[in-house]
Amino acid sequence: MSTPRLEITEQYCKGCSICVEFCPTNVLEMDGFLVKVVRPDACIGCMQCELRCPDFAIKVHKD
């Protein structure tokens, strides 16, 4: 199975960092007021970032 790919829509991100807090494998970090994918290979596809984002700024692709 391939590693899931995260897509961040920066214009939707309000910098709340909820996704960062819920990620169990520390894939995401805040870069100022925007979320950034820093460890893409660590993503386990749990979808917590996408499910918890109140602004629909993150999409998890399980290709």
Automatic annotation (TrEMBL):
Domain 4Fe-4S ferredoxin-type positions: 4-33, 34-63
InterPro entries noted in UniProt: 4Fe4S_Fe-S-bd, 4Fe4S_Fe_S_CS, Fe-S_Ferredoxin
Keyword Electron transport belongs to the record: no
Keywords: 4Fe-4S, Iron, Iron-sulfur, Metal-binding
Gene3D superfamilies, alphabetized: 3.30.70.20
Highest taxon of source: Bacteria
PROSITE patterns according to UniProt: 4FE4S_FER_1, 4FE4S_FER_2
Keyword DNA repair attributed: no
GO function terms (MF aspect): 4 iron, 4 sulfur cluster binding; metal ion binding
Name of this chain's protein: 2-oxoglutarate:ferredoxin oxidoreductase, ferredoxin subunit
Xref: PANTHER family: ADENYLYLSULFATE REDUCTASE, BETA SUBUNIT (PTHR43687), BLR5484 PROTEIN (PTHR43687:SF4)
